[in-house]
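Board notes, transcribed. Complex of a protein with flavin-adenine dinucleotide.
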Amino acid sequence: MTDTADRTDTDVVAEVNAWLAENWDPDLTVAEWWSRLGDSGWAVPTWPVEWFGKGLSRAEGVRVQQAIADFGALPAPGGLGLMLAGPTIVVHGTEEQKKRYLRDIVTGQKAWCQLFSEPGAGSDLAGLQARAVKDGDEWIVTGQKVWTSGGHFADLGMLIARTDPDQPKHAGITYFAINMHQPGIEVRPLREMTGRSLFNEVFLTEARVPDDAVIGGLNNGWRVANTTLMFERTSLGAGGGNAAASLAAAGSVAGDLDRRAGDFVRSGCRRSGGVALGTSSKSLIKLAQGLGKSDDPSLRQKLVQLHTYGELARYNNLRQRAAAAAGKDIPGLPNIAKLSMSNIVRLARDLGLELAGGYGMLHAYDNESREALDEATGMPFLAGITETALFAQGPPIYGGTDQVQRNIIGERVLGLPKEPGFDKSTPFKELPKNG
Ligand SMILES: Cc1cc2nc3c(=O)[nH]c(=O)nc-3n(C[C@H](O)[C@H](O)[C@H](O)COP(=O)(O)OP(=O)(O)OC[C@H]3O[C@@H](n4cnc5c(N)ncnc54)[C@H](O)[C@@H]3O)c2cc1C
């Protein structure tokens, strides 16, 4: 293999293409294919070489993903295991934990969810009240989580719970990898206005998690959770706007692992129901041209604005890459990237609806009505537009709202005064509680 420092984008693409030519076989099951891809290092090429990666940069990783898609092979498993749990465990897990969890993540055998938010703790995440109490070699967890994306398909959860209420609120929190398949966990799907159930309420009633599933040490959960959030913001900002979606679903619950890998590629359908979510200026420009509206000056202005946002995001990515190569960091860049993604999603929503005109008021909730709508309107892309428009409220909220990103940039990057608060040294149990 070429040395990372000397490798060009062309080398990387040639290398992955050569590997795909040897290894992609549409007749494999999804599980077999993902095992092959995961063990080769091409599923997560940005991870360290010793842990299923190839030590590539983020930009090279994007080229690899694109090359796999261009080749017509099934891409790496999507979902929060690969996006959040895996990278967090790479940073904070023990060697034994890395051996226990990482292979199942990169090969899509197990799906993960993120058990962070609670009814009274979203932006103020450190105010969480789910508690974990030690019982021999195990912890007993009781509390409620909410907005748990993919909780109904998850095998494992990234759980943060309060383990020491005598400590100040950011200090007494611990991060666990909890088995979702147990009697103490009840997952209740929530229906969104898109018609889908992406996220859930999760009730933990004396659920059990072994002590050796504590990630990053006892009462160090706030630090570990921030690593997860940093990966979330960076990858959402890099365009993973609907990161929980993928061509086939990871994990033992969704039922895709035993299916033929080639069938997912041929259909080109997202598990979420076959609607491609489009926020790129390229696809909307094509659409405007197809509808004969590309001469409209007001639309052109907005299309250029969307293109400009996309280019700024790309340049920020390059800045990040250059800084990382020089062993430096640009404070606040993940927050800026996430904010910029929110702007892109909102503008794409408005543009899509403007292009669809009055038809944008019609949304199909299942495949049958989607076909009927296609026929009635003659606009096969309408479902993608309305789906994007209805889902567009989500990205500016998850992974930390726009306001929270601005607060972080203000306080940690610009050095503005912190929001007033009295919680730095007061034990959590003495603080007034939300909800
Ligand atoms: C599609 C989707 C998927 C999600 N998936 C997950 C998941 O898988 N796992 C998970 O744990 N969570 C998930 N979330 C939850 C998400 O992280 C929270 O919704 C988010 O952190 C906001 O918390 P909240 O909903 O409690 O709103 P609140 O914190 O109650 O905020 C309400 C409003 O007040 C504003 N606000 C709050 N505090 C401040 C402040 N200090 N300064 C200025 N403004 C403020 C907010 O910006 C917001 O506009 C998901 C959310 C969505 C929409």
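The pocket of flavin-adenine dinucleotide is lined by residues 113-114, 116-117, 122-123, 147-149, 199, 394, 397-398, 400-401, 403-404, 407, 419 (CB under 6 Å). Residues 1-5, 239-245, 267-277 have pLDDT under 50 and may be disordered.
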